[in-house]
Amino acid sequence: MKEVTGKKDAAGSLSSSPLFHSKKPASTVSGLFPESVRQPEGLRQALCKQGRFAAVEKSGVALLSGGEVCLAKYVQLQKNEQVQCLDCEATHMLLLSSDGKLSEHQATASANHFKTRLLKELGNQHIVQIACGDHHSMALSRGGELFTWGQNAHGQLGVGGQVTRTAEPQLVEGLKGIALAQITAGGAHSLAVSLSGAVYSWGKNDFGQLGLGHTEDRDRPSYIGALQHWKTVFISCGADHTAVLSKDGLVCTFGAGEAGQLGHNSTRNERTPRVVAELWGARVSQVACGRRHTLVYVPSLGKVYSFGSGEEGQLGNEGKSNQLIPLPINLPVDNGKRNQGKSTSQKEIKIIAGGNQSIVLLLKKTNSYLNLNGIATLKDAWISNSHSQKWEDTRKNISLIFSSEACINGSFLEKRDKHFRTSKEISGVDMSEVLRFYEKISCKPEVFQEVKRGIKKLLPSLSFSPISPENFRIYLILPFLLRGEDDTSYHSLSLLAQATMRLQPKDLQTLESLWSNLETFFFKELVSIYQRASQYNLSQFIWKVMYFQRGLFELHRQERVTLRLLQILFQVNSRAGFGIHKTNFYIPEVKEIIRMSFCMEVEKSFQMALWKLTKYPCIFDMQDKIAVHDIECSALSVCCLSTINFPLVVPETWVFPVRRQHLLHDIWDVLNNAVPEQFKKILEASSHGNTFFLIGTLFGMALYNRCIAPFPFPQALYKKMLQVAPTLEDLKELVPSEGRSLQKILDEEHDDILESLDMDFTIMEEEGSSMVVTELKKNGTNIPVTKHNRKEFVDLYVNYVFNESVQKSFEDFMRGFLRGCPAKKWKMFLPVELQTVFEGHTKYDWHLLEKNVEYAGYKKSDQTIKNFWTVFHKLPEEKKKMFLAFLSGSDRIPANGLQYFIFVIEDPKKENPDTYYPVGNTCSHLLLLPRYSCKRILKKRLLSAIKHCENFGLP
Asked: For the residues 771-797, what does the mean pLDDT come to?
């Protein structure tokens, strides 16, 4: 046998097959030990199934024997196409041609004539893999789509349980977008494994052969969570059991174990994957399942092991007994003659498990035995061929990949097996590779245009019910391939954003988790991509309104979808502690829309747009938010928004009859008896029960009337107002000693020190003259704080301080606040921004004050004005702040800064001005400054005025 391409050792019921005639007499039905038999020249594939033996020669010709066929016969495809591979079930055989066309051969046909039928239903698909169960078939296309047909009594087709049988191939929607590496079928169950090792199963499950931890059938693909991070690279199915091989050479099995086919030294069934312990430490490279037996190959030992049913001698152990653990097969090649003749280093082993048969092929390494073809993924060579004669093939490949969700998800994978760790936190995508690819294709216009055409074709059909974290890779990859600043890219980004928004909340949460785990550089670039797309959409809207002017234009949902996504990215950034600055989200066009909201010809279109944009506060800077808040408050005060060629409606005021000596009492009395409509009026003071509710009311009125109110409230209050959860850092601000103590608990490394503190899940509070103990969780007094639960303890402690202990008080406060401030747009602010709006700034640039002043009856060059600024700039800091309070009612700078603080210096035109004092009008920021004769008198009168003034500002 030295001259043949390879050697075949066979065990089991094969001696009746004409393909296996040898010089030994065929006197037995079953081979109890391996026999050496001759094989066809140039073998590409061998298959033992359903009592038949089939083979594919290197020349692309298929041979079949067994069953009703007495002699080996050739099976021809139409147009004499070459056979790439084959598989069979009980009633027919599938033959896959080298160009990806699938044909069906009826196994019960006449022994003298074989007819094949091309599966026209898959005529437009390039098939790369096939698999057959007892009564169902599977086919994987090069574009990553999986098709199934046949019986479906147990859901083995994976298309739902509506039909029990179908002759036409059905698309398995449940695996849409998954980059599959391999498909396989058992008796009535099916499995598939992705390029990143995720395993999915469906169909019959009475023995646990789906590996899902139960015995219920599944009619749609289910992810086997127990195999997460297992690095699965190959799967094989028996009639009712499954074997899985990892990249590290480990084998686990599950399903029926009555014959020992699981290798666990028992006949027990396994519902979840279990490692074959007897193979631990041996790096397995191949695994194959027969109906009720299993084979594995360990190349480092040069051994093939078998276990399971031996009723037909298929274990090669010279008997018919079952084996419960893997034992080596004594192959003829292993005898003493092994080292005679050609060196086995030039050979390679291939194991095949049939129904009740086993085959071991000893092949020349140069032999082209069948390897699994996979779905299309990206190759750099295609980019380089953009100007070559192969461009048409390259174009087709690019079009196929970028119009396929699965192909894109299978490209740009992390190297060195990192993609096998794909989870809800790890995408498995090499983002640097994505960026590198974009930079390459951006220099190749033909390639770039083909990529964009493929993506545009794909976007409307993106799956909105992902089954695996691998599905989400496309949402990370595509934005970076659409970075171009052109209409096509921006339109595609809007379509991608629409697809993202169609995801279910739980799936969107997974995508947010993947976003949050991107490197800062890539997250910032992702934000920039959607920020530019949003900017483009808003600029188009502005152009449309300004160009046509007449008519009412609406900012439609599709024009705002990138804004929705940008706001979600902002929330992700916020939860991650603001890895990138909030200015990356700002859109300058917002300022133009605010400005045009006051332009009479187009105001309504822009006002409608502005109010819709307030749903996405991340795109507004601080000044824009304050402007929106002011507009809303003015509108609620019945003040007309337009200021050009339109008479202002004088707003109705709410007069507070207060006495200076009883100011707080009178304010409380007025607020207590007010009706809701009064809070929409402009507050005005005249000289003439419920504490938290009233404080909230006063607080709300201060915001509504745009007053600085520096109440000494911690930032935690503003967080609660905006429904942002306070943290331990907020407790450190509120009660530093408690905050530091809790931080020490989190940082403590030694268990014995924590135990010595003798802490439990309770908190002790002072109530009157006694101490009260409150449980932080049920049975908290009996739960000690340990290293394992301390994080939970701290979280509960913080929650109690900021939420549970003040629930009623905060509810009263908010009820009063919402009563005092009918406006709603204050919710656009971040907590720190809202705090600044209330408290103002305490950092001063006094030169900006001079720069922004306006004059009435004066000129900047007048001597009195020059004297005033000379005197002012020489005043101590404290005196300058007193002047600010004298002028505006508060010594704090408004939230939008001194650069936006404008006041007027007016000449009161008094006779004998040296006898008058300056007068400050806090409501209009007006300074009445007499024309003093000299600098000395001006300084004296000014200091006296600011020292003895009385204002209505809050201390």
From this structure: 92
The answer to whether 347 and 363 have CB atoms below 8 angstroms apart is yes
Tens digit of each residue's pLDDT (9 = 90 or more) over 563-583: 999 999 999 999 988 889 999
Long-range contacts of 947-953, Cβ-Cβ distance < 8 Å, separation of 24 or more:
947/882, 949/885, 949/886, 949/920, 950/660, 951/885, 951/886, 951/889, 951/920, 951/922, 952/685, 952/889, 952/922, 953/707, 953/708, 953/885, 953/888, 953/889, 953/890, 953/891, 953/922
The SS3 of residue 908 is: coil
* 11, 17, 317, 819 from 24: Cα distances, Å: 14, 13, 19, 100
Choose among 89, 53, 313: nearest CA to 187: 89
Q: What is the CATH number of domain 126-375?
A: 2.130.10.30
Res. 436: pLDDT tops 90: yes
The residue extents of the domains of the chain are: 45-118, 126-375, 377-499, 716-837, 840-948
Strand stretches in 121-176, DSSP E: 127-132, 136-141, 146-151, 165-171
pLDDT attached to residue 658: 58
C-alpha span between 26 and 184 (Å, rounded): 33
Angle CA 173–177–180, to nearest 5? 95
Other beta carbons within 10 angstroms of residue 400's beta carbon come to 18
Residue 255: the pLDDT is 98
At residue 25, does pLDDT exceed 60?
no
One-letter-per-residue 3-state SS of 331-384: CHHHCCCCCCCCCHHHEEEEEEECCCEEEEEEEECCCCCCCCCCCCCCCHHHHH
The pLDDT of residue 343: 47
In this structure, the dihedral spanned by the alpha carbons of residues 836, 725, 819 and 650, taken in order and rounded to 10 degrees, is 30
- Class for the domain spanning 716-837: alpha beta
**CATH number among 3.40.640.10, 3.30.2410.10, 2.60.120.330, 3.30.420.10, domain 840-948:** 3.30.2410.10
Residue 397 to residue 142: CA distance in whole angstroms: 10
How confident is the model at residue 47, as a pLDDT?
86
Running DSSP on this structure, what letter comes out for residue 955? -
Residues designated catalytic: 923
Name the residue type at position 794: V
Q: What is the tens place of the pLDDT at every residue in 856-879?
A: 999 999 999 999 999 999 999 999
pLDDT single digits (tens) 447-468 = 899 999 999 999 999 988 888 9
What's the mean per-residue pLDDT of the chain? Answer: 85
DSSP letter string, 827-882: GGS-HHHHHHHHH-B----HHHHHHT-EEES--TTSHHHHHHHHHHHHS-HHHHHH
**How do beta strands 926-928 and 904-906 pair?**
parallel
pLDDT at residue 644, as a whole number: 35
Q: How far apart are CA 298 and CA 52, in angstroms?
A: 27
Q: How many Å is the Cα radius of gyration of the chain?
A: 40
